[in-house]
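JOB MANIFEST
job_type = single_chain_structure
chain_count = 1
residues = 454
[input]
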Amino acid sequence: MAAKAKAIYLCSVCGHESPKWLGKCPSCGAWNTLSEYHTQGPAKTRTLAASLEGAGKPVALSAISGERELRVSTGIPELDRVLGGGMVVGSLLLLSGEPGIGKSTLLLQASQSLCEQTPVLYITGEESLPQIKLRADRLGIASERVFIYSETQLDAILRAADSLEPGVLVVDSVQTVYNPDIASAPGSVTQVRECTMTLMRYAKTKGVTILLVGHVNKDGEIAGPKVLEHMVDTVLNFEGERNAAYRILKSEKNRFGSTHETGVFQMGDTGLTSVDNPSEALLSGRPEGAHGSCVVATLEGTRPLLAEVQALVTKSAYGSARRTASGLDYNRAVLLMAILEKRAGFLLSSFDAYINVVGGLSLDEPAVDLAALLALASSYLEKPIAHDLAAFGEVGLSGELRAVTGAAQRLEELRRLGFRRCVLPGGCRDSVKGVTGIEMIFARDIAEAIKGSL
């Protein structure tokens, strides 16, 4: 007797299941996100993935081989850096990013290099074969070991993988893949969750490295249930402005490496290229003698990165002053303006203030506080900061400067690129004793920092 269909309600944000409809999700607190889905009972799957169930058996911990994981280089230095040295064989990776940021371009270029070591099967669910061919011709990719398959049905994808036996499987994108035995539309919470789980079992059982492309919602988070991020081994996020030349690749989760590494790419006519010296590239074209500009030495993982923070302070023409921040957290920017007004006497309440990080970067570490504050002070006083001076440090609510990690690495990067002076917190004095070749201006609070730089 056929199992009776059962109605459940799933949250489109976190995947929470509820037996009845609710206006507010009890798990994530989102409003009006529960949608009705119908299941077909326990015997709903008859896909090729069913053969993977029960393939293994319990093994004693002492009997498991202690060999290091086998990594495969993608041929793209910045991508290998973020992954911790390359892709681990049999892992499941998720690449997310806004539309048009270059996710498909990056994976197609990686396929060109990976196919020299193993066959690559590229599944496209959003483009036709001629469209993929046009992009491949533009990128100069032509290999007999890269196989393109335009398909969205999970059964067909796994059958093609079984017949071809590739070492790398690319699925672009996971929101287009569907299981016909699940009564919901492609891209729904149920489909994304079940298809990803099946692909995860396939990767672990067959030893195939699978790369998934994931869409993001309007809030910049990965579309689908949050459990999707828990299932995969690595979550990579591709950031940057589509109209800007530079793209930033960050790792939000990595079971086989650090989550603090960052890769920098430049988008050109022939695709994405790794930026070997991102600090020099980001500072190119920096104006000399302009007020409202300060260079900060930020730390992205183990890599010191120099970025230009610009600020514009102008008399407000309306009753309330405007505040805008690009590349810097808005609330943090407003907080810095309040500190500058309260602790340094800058009357910013009647001025519009705008902050921008050049190059489309998004800086979120506290060490950027001092550079943003000095840029605001420079624009307010209309006094330029010296072209060879940089700054970094965290600013407290009392106006004090607090030490940050990696001060010596930041100073070495500044010295390498020709900076002669740097304003930094006095608490970093002991950690930078061995650094030479750059003048260090130690400051206890923002008043000393402004005096030493303007």
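[summary]
The radius of gyration is 26 Å.
The domain at 70-276 is CATH 3.40.50.300 (Rossmann fold).
exit_status = 0
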